[in-house]
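User: I'm putting together notes for a lab meeting next week and I want to include a structural view of one of the chains we've been expressing. I don't have a solved structure, so I'd like a prediction I can at least talk through. The sequence is below, exactly as it appears in our construct file.
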Amino acid sequence: MAKVHITDLVLRDGHQSLIATRMRTEDMLPICGKLDQVGFWSLEAWGGATFDACVRFLREDPWERLRKLRKALPNTRIQMLLRGQNLLGYRNYSDDVVRAFVQKSADNGVDVFRVFDAMNDLRNLKVSIEAVKAAGKHAEGAICYTTSPVHDIPHFVGLAKGLTEMGCDTIAIKDMAGLLTPYTAYDLVCAIREATHLPIHTHSHATSGLAHMTHLKAVEAGATLIDTSVGAFAEGASHPTTQSLVAALAGTAYDTGLSLPLIEEISAYFKEVRKKYWQFESAFTGTDTRVLINQVPGGMISNLANQMKEQGALDRMDAVLDEIPRVRQDLGYPPLVTPTSQIVGTQAALNVLTGERYKSVTNEVKLYLQGRYGKAPGHVNEEVRKLAIGDLEVTTCRPADLIADELDKLRGEIEGLAKSDEDVLTYAMFPEIGKTWLQERAAGSLKPEQLLPAGASQEDSAPRYAADEFKITLHGETYHIKLSGSGRSDAAQRPYFVSIDGVSEEVLVEPLNEVAVSAGSDNTPRKTAAAPAPGQKPRASHPGHVTAAMPGTIVDVLVKIGQTVKAGDGVLVIEAMKMENEVQAPIAGVVISIFCKKGDAVTPDMALVEIQPE
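Assistant: Thanks for the context. Below is the predicted structure for the 614-residue chain, given as structure tokens.
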């Protein structure tokens, strides 16, 4: 029986799962010589979130990272994770961009392309896999593993057959949440082997505590490739420890033949490197069996918890975790992996925070329900679809068929800043941050985010928020006051709920430097307070005021003063929790005031647009 080969993930998924993809190239290169000696089948070192993190946070050129790693790893395959038609961004790209990106990735050093689609829609993988084969590289087709009433072994075997027909060289079972149980893995690997005869590669996060056993049973069933990460960046939301699997298989028919002392030496290096990035450490470093119920991957939980904290609603996290499976069912059981994990998670949060399911629907959910991400695996709740998109036509073709070639257009948009095709593709992935990165590179002002020294306070790098807890001294007496909530009021005074020395109280506050607008007896708005200071927004107080459902940032203003709108027309687009949400007119009428602009940070009590009733 063939021995088992290992793909090590320390240069990509290991640090993506545990320190938010923050490892810099300068900390990878010194150990590459030893990594190259081990004899791994491949090293996953590019793709996934690494491209985004390089540009957004590390201010590195991701293409330059790839070239340096290629030079430092002459004897080892470099593997990348590619999101099919999404590439490394968060939307579908035109076919000419997909082909160009794959070719340039191959030219700069990628040997193995693991290609997946969040919907498991094979149509979204076709062009990527064709491009990999055209570049003469190894195409690994990935099946996103999940559980639901429609996800069973015959379903996954059908996907494996489709990937085989596309010309894939290996099949990966991508278990991004640690849901695959050992005996199911055995049956699934046996079934796929019998149907395809291709080598099978298993990938399972350690989140639920099952991954070590899952790999072992998969190997017994005939899988010849497994994913692990050296111990310094293993376990928790990451992957099983490389040393552990090497030791477990040593002396058996599945012996990896790898040197345990050499891998341990590499792990010791990364253990020291990891200390530099302590400020980005994930809170999810141990086993978290909640994933077996809510199917939320560890990385998604930590990200969602941080977003809920930013919304001032961390205490409602459990309610969001309960809502996620319901939203997933409404959307036809998509696997929870980028970008569907964020689409489902954000909509669940909106449902909880607004107090009404689908009162506010993100643009991404609307696009999903229009079929723009691909075909849902299961039945979509038609009531939710009707509520979200009305009578809009649902796409049934391959979504990218609706996208015209765009590479020349992108070149024109970035002309003068882009020095290479790779620069154009960086801009294509992330237009806003990509353009800023290119501008800063031209100005020589690229600087990575700060790494705090050991012993510094985590708060030194945290976002600054208004205080909600105080000690107030009045007439010689000191009181401990904590703000626990606030309410809305149509009157000039607004209630705040506070704890004073542990005793709950309600206080009424009358702002003197904002506009408080109320409707008169003739329904015409009238001011009841002084005009706001520059940059301030009036407090929402009557039906014609348009407000956001949750704190966020204005992405676009869709109306102009004097424009007539109907109830339900789009007025604003707000980005909250990394998703865009169209804010609709609450009433019909004429837009008489706009209190916000693109880029403004807003909260639910702010009036953003005012509509005069007809």
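A couple of points you could mention at the meeting. Residues 186 and 218 are 5 Å apart (CA to CA). The chain is about 35% helix and 20% strand.

User: Perfect, that's what I needed.
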